[in-house]
Model the fold of this input.
Amino acid sequence: MRTPALKNPCWTAAGWAVVAVAALAAPAAATAGLPMSAADLAAPAAPVATRIISFVDGVGPIVDGPGKPGDEGQSGGGDLSATAARRQCTDGAYSRTGWRVSGTLKWYYNGAGAPSSVSRTAAKTTSTAVSRLVKGYNDCGLKRSFKVGQKYAGTSRRAPAVTATSCGKQDGYSVVGWKKLPSSVLAVTCAWSTAGDHRVVSTDIAINTRYKWFTTKPGRCSNTFDLESVLSHEWGHAFGLGHVSLSSHGTQTMATAVGACTTAKRTLGLGDYRGMQRIYGLR
Ligand SMILES: [Zn+2]
Done:
């Protein structure tokens, strides 16, 4: 098991900041990373403004295995085996980061550096992923959405404030974009929230250009990742969901890693749904 590293807290211009790097699953990792939510990190009491957390999300083995040919698309994008699909809807595990979006999260997309395979579809897929998250999209028969909103505000030239596996300087804009990140990382989410009541000030997501991505699963898929599944997970962080362990809760979208060529994490599992319900309540 890999223990997340807590980097040394430090003072910044914005005030006290805690930078945490969550479990990172390397491509060849046989065991899952140990989940740790930001809520687990005891932030020292300080008279402050902002705290920063980054989640670094790696590549993992496909713990659930691919579904039968033809499963794809029939359940809204899932490709789980029947057993895994059951587990996805009976495993209620979740963790919280401790922050929440207040009202409506306004976000931008920056397509600079997007791989050509998804450059024309990535903005729409990003929007689909966050829309589905707040609507509680699932294959478990849960019908209600959450009391939180999101709004796509257009394209932006601002880069996500993500530096390799940590966070850069918060600029007040929530941006999803592309960046060359370390090879063990699929994507990184940073969120800045108020120290007092932990409302999200802004949140940035960087997707790693080192990997191959798809928005529509190709007939012959190899070593290529589903952008929507990964973004569902990253948006989960942005809205306050932490990790659950890959080994125990691998069917949940918020498990620490995702395999290539699976679209199973486009939908929320029971735990993902309960986590969002706990934070925001149901409409
Ligand atoms: Zn994550």
In short: The CA atoms of residues 65 and 151 lie 34 Å apart. Residues 7-280 form a domain with the Collagenase (Catalytic Domain) fold (CATH 3.40.390.10). The pocket of zinc ion is lined by residues 55, 57, 233, 237, 243 (CB under 6 Å). The chain is about 20% helix and 25% strand.
